[in-house]
Amino acid sequence: MRLDLAVAVRFQLSRRAAREAVRAGRVDVGGQTRDEPGLEVPEGVDLSHHPDRPARRRVRTRLSLLHEDADLLVVEKPAGLLAVPTAEREKDTLLSRVSLYLQHRYRRRPYVGVVHRLDRDTSGAMVFARTRQALHALQEQFRRHDIEREYLAIVEGEPAPAGSFDAALAGDGTERRRGVARPGERGKRAVTRYRVLEKLGGASLVAVELETGRTHQIRIHFAASGHPVLGDRIYRSPAAPPPPIEVGRQMLHARRLGFLHPRDGRPLRAEAPVPEDFEKAVAQLRARARAKKSAPGSPGRGSTSRKVG
User: Residue 185's domain is classified under what CATH number?
Assistant: First the structure.
């Protein structure tokens, strides 16, 4: 369980108030002050809340931390922000924000190693290494596909309740767009597993797990199956009918990231909260589905809403 959630439940605080209490250094875990809201703690852990304790000096940053220790950081990437600079040398990226945060917090020039990437318009959890040893160990886990990665996606239509895609991908994304390899064409093996969490009337909320981690893998596989990720303007077929609703970006969120800690091998898992625009899209689809069901002459009963995630 995340520390901020445990604090909210134990002390009857809102999730936001609990998160701020943790970040301000007003929560102790087992007698030790911890300021990482995304820290995984066991149920029944010894927690204490000190609302009158002066807030710790806080680093002002546009960065949401899910986990931090001497070897790595797991941070929440917002949609619309590049993970790392491109050839255009953009100044505001997730990498630059991580570097600035570490520099301000520890008053020295930090080492930040890029372990993996997310697309600009994909939100969710990303890990950065703080030492070269951690970088190499984490990259090796990614190379062996030993990382737990779960995404949430809203896809068009209604795919089978559960399934997997095992189609090799070809293309380099520069001279030739990436896509499923044609018969006889060389490609890299790519395996995507999914399960439908909720049917939304013209769209579906799905949980996706990656066995491999190819660039744009989820988007390509679902588009090739006839169920493109809602809002994907690159891989969605131009001949497809209009989407059920219009959204500002592809509805893809890297919700969970799990791996073995590079120093001592203990399991570490971080979860990124579902962003507001994703929640809003799900709510809009649910309302649209209810309106269809309640229309005169329409069969079926209304469905019960629940929070995403």
Answer: 3.30.2350.10
Active site residues: 119
Q: What is the pLDDT of residue 59?
A: 47
According to DSSP, residue 110 is labeled: P
Quick one: pLDDT band at residue 297, thresholds 50, 70, 90?
low
Here the tokens at position 139 are 């990259």
- Using CA atoms, how far residue 22 sits from 52, 53, 58, 106, in Å, is 13, 11, 11, 19
Same domain (yes/no): 46, 85: no
Q: Angle 249-253-256 (CA atoms, 0-180°, nearest 5)?
A: 170
Pairing status of strand 203-210 against strand 191-199: antiparallel
Largest Cα span, the chain: 68
For residues 167 and 189, give the distance between their C-alpha atoms in angstroms, rounded to a whole number. Answer: 7
pLDDT: is 44 or 82 the higher one?
82
Q: What is the pLDDT of residue 300?
A: 55
73 and 192 inside one domain: yes
Statement to judge: residues 87 and 230 lie in one domain: yes
Tokens read off for 276: 């507001």
Strands 252-260 and 123-129: parallel
Q: Which domain holds residue 21?
A: 1-58
Nearest to 50 by CA among 19, 24, 15, 30: 24
Helix and strand element counts for the chain (H, E): 6, 15
The length of the chain, given as a count of residues: 309
**For 140-191, what is each residue's pLDDT tens digit?**
999 998 999 999 999 999 999 999 999 889 886 554 578 888 887 888 889 9
Nearest by Cα to 206 from 265, 128, 151, 145? 151
Name the strand (E) or helix (H) holding 16. helix 15-23
Write down the H helix ranges in 171-232.
217-224
**Beta strand ranges found along 41-99 (DSSP E):** 47-49, 64-68, 72-77
The span from the CA of 74 to the CA of 190, in Å, is 25
- Two tokens, residue 101: 């945060």
The predicted model scores a pTM of 0.77
Task: Check whether residue 86 and residue 44 sit in a common domain.
Answer: no
